[in-house]
Automatic annotation (TrEMBL):
It comes from the Eukaryota. This is Alpha-macroglobulin-like TED domain-containing protein. The lineage of its organism: Eukaryota, Metazoa, Spiralia, Lophotrochozoa, Annelida. One of its GO terms (biological process) is carbohydrate metabolic process. It comes from Capitella teleta (Polychaete worm).
Amino acid sequence: MDQGNYQKIVSKLRWMQEEQIWPNGSRYLWTDAHGVIALVSLFAETNDESYLKQAEAVVREVYKTLGRPRGLRIGEDLDRDGQYFHYLTKWMYALNQLGRIKPMYHEEAVKLVKDVHEAFVIRGRGVRWKMTEDLSATYPGYGLGGLDHYDGYVQYRLLDPVALSSEIHDLKMLIDADYKKFNCSQDLALGESLWTSHFFPDEPWAQVLRQRSIKALDSLWCEKGSRGYFCREPKQHNVKFAFTNFGISYALQSVKLWPQRVQKLNTFFEEYRSNDEYDHEAITHVMHVNSLFPGLLAPFN
């Protein structure tokens, strides 16, 4: 790891704790998953046991605060109720990385699949985007997710292709019926689809997602000298979010694409302030760590 980036990460982690942003702030499953991955990545890189202890402490707090009889709540705040499938799959990935060191976390991830799969997956049709907190019904006003079957398929295969063979089959059927029609224009979703595609790059669905995501992301790139960013949607060149760019950044690093753009977006967002809640939100700063050092988010890099 680049020593300059490492020092930025150390400073960022210290500042977040001092400001009570993370890991001692409000629990939010998406952010906590990325944070656990970052800490386990730092342990793998440095062999510093303190990072491993911090990762395990976050996991304990997540289950204490967000854990439910089946699955995990989206977040601690009142407006973050219900469950998202794509948050659960990111948490599965975090547990799986920790489980490579301590197997009990791998077992917990497999159990999570068994707990939630039947509630979210409609065989032959799709994956529910959001469920009520007890998984008894689709959350009012929400339909099917566009990328969730890809997320689940990849995470299940990484976890345990034998124990989860039935669940993998359910999602593979959805992928086979869908991938040729894949079309996406939003920044965060494009980063996620590109990242998802890098785990099994020789499979036809992964090749389609990768090619179309790269093409779409290229159209979102806005460059200003030594700085740049990916805008939210085509024709919205002034709309930009730091955390979505950081997600794109680790996706690009996972496929070894556009390193200069990665550097330019990191440079841009080190100084950029949106002057809204995102300037102080944990999601912005935790994902900045992932952008500076993807670590286990880009295991084949």
